[in-house]
Design goal:
- Pfam families: Neprosin, Neprosin_AP.
- InterPro entries: Glutamic_endopeptidase (IPR053168), Neprosin (IPR004314), Neprosin_propep (IPR025521).
- Keywords: Signal.
- The structure is a single chain.
- This protein has four helices and 21 strands.
- It is α+β, with helices and mostly antiparallel strands.
- It has one domain.
- Strands 6, 11, 13, 14, 15, 17, 18, 20 and 21 form a nine-stranded antiparallel beta sheet that branches.
- The longest helix has 49 residues.
- The relative contact order is 0.17.
Length: 423
């Protein structure tokens, strides 16, 4: 009798435990479901903020959707300070001496002439006047980010610090660079013609880019930066295409700023070029070479920072109120490449910088910046004085400067990352 009673108690206890276990699973499932639906709602709200109603939509051959948005409905005007902003449709001043450096001399070898470049979506249409092209953000784009809040933002500590590098900082941040730079003066802009490639990326959370940096303030939490160039970033765009991009921050990448038009800030006025859209074609090793020209300068009258792509496209401007130090001038300009190395324990990624080849290989094989200029306080484009160079690990990625009549100040840069001398 006692044993039977004991058995019934055990069965009852077992049934109770199973019931509680199932209840726990149901609770966990409900919590997960609630969390997933909350995240979905968050993502949807963010997409509604970013993707404004389109006048026209163009499907790019690479799968991108380019929305033609009325110029006054772009994301910039979500900013409270820009509610009553009157769009400036052209800069008051343009740096002098812009076009002289790009004239190809009669003595330049034909093989070293660059070829025209465009964006892939142009093959399928163009945006009407009065609109601007914006790459539509998809749900999967936002879900690849660490959080909805961090979508479209760089990770912290993404700026090379040539004069005061802390080795621990390099290892911790995982960012590596091969750059040329100037400092020690007041700068009001910068220009360069940048060779375009499609570097191979090892991990989806890594990227490779080539850009110019306009910097103000210290390398602490108050750093101001305006950046423009090309990048390959599977994490941001979901593919390995080479894309035109811009970036800005006024607090060292903490809370302010973003890539392209993924937050309010940059005001675009151009209907032909889409930030974040694929560039085509790109350079090939020992074959045709393609490059893009980028100019960023400060309008002396309004104080806004303007950006120009090539000789024909003034894209728009960053209003001066976005910045503290850059509201006056820049204290440093940098040009060059950057990659992220996510490999742990001292191992190195095989993510390429530039063409993936070292500078000494030269034209047609290595990546370059040519006709490097800075804008001075008289709004003149000038050759930089005392161009310095910097790289964290020259066995992985390197940089070599030079100067001649056709290319002015230039440098070759980049590398393969992991190799026998960069384990």
């Amino acid at each position: 009798m006692g044993n039977a009673h004991f058995s019934r108690e055990r069965i009852r206890t077992g049934v109770l435990l199973v019931f509680l276990w199932m209840l726990g699973l149901i609770s966990l499932s409900c919590a997960a479901s609630l969390s997933a639906s909350r995240q979905k709602l968050q993502v949807q709200k963010h997409l509604n903020r970013l993707n404004k109603p389109a006048v026209k939509t163009i499907k790019s051959p690479d799968g991108d959707l380019i929305d033609c948005i009325h110029i006054s409905h772009q994301p910039a005007f979500d900013h409270p300070f820009l509610k009553d902003h009157k769009i400036q449709m052209r800069p008051n001043y343009h740096p002098e001496g812009l076009f002289d450096e790009d004239k190809i001399s009669d003595t330049e070898k034909p093989k070293q002439r660059s070829n025209p470049i465009t964006q892939l979506w142009h093959m399928n249409g163009k945006c009407p006047q009065g609109t601007i092209p914006i790459r539509r953000t998809k749900e999967e784009d936002v879900l690849r980010a660490s959080s909805v809040k961090r979508y479209g933002k760089k990770k912290l500590r993404a700026i090379p610090q040539p004069r005061s590098v802390d080795p621990d900082l390099i290892n911790q941040s995982g960012h590596q660079h091969a750059i040329a730079y100037v400092e020690g003066d007041k700068y009001y802009g910068a220009k360069a013609t940048i060779n375009v490639w499609e570097p191979k990326i090892q991990q989806p959370n890594e990227f490779s880019l080539s850009q110019l940096w306009i910097l103000g303030g210290s390398f602490g939490e108050d750093l101001n930066s305006i950046e423009a160039g090309w990048q390959v970033s599977p994490d941001l765009y979901g593919d390995n295409n080479t894309r035109l991009f811009t970036y800005w921050t006024s607090d060292a990448y903490q809370a302010t700023g973003c890539y392209n038009l993924l937050c309010s800030g940059f005001i675009q006025i151009n209907s032909e070029i889409a930030m974040g859209a694929s560039i085509s074609p790109v350079s090939a090793y020992r074959n045709s070479q393609y490059d893009i020209s980028i100019l960023v300068w400060k309008d002396p009258k309004e104080g806004h920072w303007w950006m120009q792509f090539g000789n024909d496209y003034v894209l728009g401007y960053w209003p001066s109120f976005l910045f503290s130090y850059l509201a006056d001038s820049a204290s440093m300009i940098e040009w060059g490449g950057e990659v992220v190395n996510s490999e742990p324990d001292g191992h190195h990624t095989s993510t390429q910088m530039g063409s993936g080849h070292f500078p000494e290989e030269g034209f047609g094989k290595s990546s370059y910046f040519r006709n490097i200029r800075v804008v001075d306080d008289s709004n003149n484009l000038k050759a930089p004085k005392e161009l310095g160079t910097f790289t964290e690990q020259s066995n992985c990625y390197d940089v070599q400067t030079g100067s001649n009549g056709d290319w002015g100040h230039y440098f070759y840069y980049g590398g393969p990352g992991k190799n026998p001398n960069c384990p």
